[in-house]
């Protein structure tokens, strides 16, 4: 578009001349496609960028001309990468020079479009395009009032979600599209058309979010919106709208247990779209989804239904039509081949006939062969091929051997998503075990354990990490079982330690290692930190080659550190047994796990090169599940109605449950271990220390309180018990203590009291009693309205000790998600991740006189995600809290007794060294006061040294 003279006011003659050349040359180039004309236009644009007053308001006409020319040359010359890069460089200068003027949004929109294009086109083999450019595009000041800009912004957010897996981006994309749908129309005549368009975009984003989260609310809304769009009376796009509805219905059918009504309707809608839109470029995609809907419909049919095989064969015929329509070189062909293979696999399982299984194997092979190197879906195809080979298991054809080799290839494929690699390792281990190769099976399970940190990469939100890690909770325990079957007790302990507390290891394991490296070699530490960011971003979507390159560069860099930096030969490698056993320097650590036919305890002591193995035949998985389910049901009732009748019923159920559970735990787990250990009391009658480190759901049970108190047989009468999530966390605390010993000022305690709602009558009394007892060693109580989350976080950084008297909240979902537990302060909940990062200081004591402060998650028992563990991560050497609810009155007495024992009158300063023994004494006294009420005295636990 040519500029008029009014727009050129204030320009110099030279600037007008450049403007005329740029406009005339670009117009000629558009018409003729002449590269010479484009070169002339670009040269004029480059000279305009050099104008000294380019960033002045009256040079907007020049800025718009530059944008038109550089964007036009890129679009008009075959969208070549070299022209794209030149256009981006020029537009960055235009945007920067126009930031103070209102027209920046126009240039920003064009720049964002080009950055988006480069992200799609950039080479991936080296692990990446520059992810910072995608961030740059999203951060550009696009006009919020422009619906096209909103659409682009949402698309960029979707792309970043697909690359990184961050739900924050997808959530923001949904919000952006929802706002665009509800915004006043830019053109009133297009009100309804625009609303339908944005309804469709919003529905697609909701469906994508439902695919990732399993949210039935999102998929229901997506179906509702797609249905409204498909039923609207208007011209054009009706077939694609009906297809979108069918695909959403299919997604709902698959996410909700293959509901036959949704699957049947999905077939109906997709058949209608196929019949109306035979000329559509999306026609093969609709056919493939219709076939998938038929297969999903079959899953909802009862076994033996005579129509199932017919529908699957109809689906296979649709797959064949798709493959006839797309060429051999089509990018989508591997996906369509895999879809056909999946349907053949289902037919093979349904009929038991050898023909469909052989056809499925051949189809999976073709999908693997057709998928190019680096295709993120190829490992999935290869894993599915292996599964079919394993199911057929023809010894003549060597199916089992081929399946094992294929699974090994998936395990070693760094381009594959980590979850697929773990699954392949599990299948491979099962196949190797069946083949009698237990050593090879142990190698596969070891790789599965090593991959767990990559499943829950740090780039994801914590709730997403927890959800992705949940299916693999048994991996370390199964790996332990294989190691024990081979007599490898040391390796069993190593595997259990590496496979538990994975999420906390992200928080303080890798970061602490990088900090240690930074004190010796800052350049290598900074390089690894940048690589870690790159690697953690390439987690999902079409990022296989990016992921492969990032993982390769990370592996090379860590190997370089081990080879070049003195003292770092084991940098970021899992701890070996000889390192781990140092954690038991103050007493034995008992690693305990249940099993299908009996459990086992591995007792780690600092002075023995091998762990002591103790068989526990009565500690079965079935029994542990039965007792934990009763406990969790009681806890849930209490949490739903803490001060009401349902909560009272929960307390009664908890008391009944403990009456059964504590004697069973004593007979099945604790007593056999203590009898085998024969730990002697010290000469002065002081009981020995012992740390429990239970595995899996066993971590939800009160091992420390196991026993039959009325006859004097219990853990509390034999040892001073503590807990540790794993050996490495205890070892880290010991190392921190050694590094920080005798440094800093005298320790002081921060008392925090929030009566809350329903009110905790004794909370303020308790906190003031603690402060009064400690005198000059305690700060004034941070009370009520003063105890906001931000205020507490600021104060924690300044104190070595802290005492909380407030509400604790039991998590009802994943421990770190939006409805998860934490500490109830005046303005909001203080969550576990905030507590974990609360301070740089080390040492000291944290007493959480709160309900559920050490209550683990039944979804992720092996991760120890609760406030007590978070404060241990924050550096507190001793953390005391409760596994379930506390009784307000008895809690005050327990707190007073604890501090009187730990810090007797006249003590010089504060020392937390005797915290475990002080709690032990307090709980035994509380037990004597309430002998028939373990729900009152048994919740208290000690974590740490």
Question: Could you characterize the architecture of this molecule?
Answer:
This protein is α/β, with parallel strands linked by helices and 945 residues long. Among the domains are: 457-574, no CATH class; 579-722; 727-944, 3-Layer(aba) Sandwich (Rossmann fold). It has 37 helices and 16 strands. The protein has a 6-stranded mixed beta sheet with strand order 9-8-10-14-15-16, sandwiched between helices. It has a 5-stranded mixed beta sheet with strand order 3-2-1-4-7. A 3-stranded antiparallel beta sheet has the order 11-12-13. 50% of the residues are buried.
What is the compact description of this entry?
The protein has 945 residues and is of the alpha/beta class. It has 37 helices and 16 strands.
Please tell me the overall pLDDT: 81
Cα Rg: 32 Å
| Residues in β-strands, percent | 5-15%
Total of helices = 37
Distance between the termini: 75 Å
Number of extended strands? 16
User: What global shape is seen?
Assistant: globular
Low-confidence stretches: 123-129
CATH architecture of the domain at 727-944: 3-Layer(aba) Sandwich
Task: Using the coordinates above, name the CATH class of the domain at 727-944.
Answer: Alpha Beta
Task: Decide which structural class fits the backbone.
Answer: alpha/beta
Give the biggest sheet. Answer: 6 strands, mixed
Q: Order of strands across the widest beta sheet?
A: 9-8-10-14-15-16
**In CATH terms, what is the fold-level topology of the domain at 727-944?**
Rossmann fold
Q: What percent of the residues sit in helical stretches (DSSP H or I)?
A: 55-70%
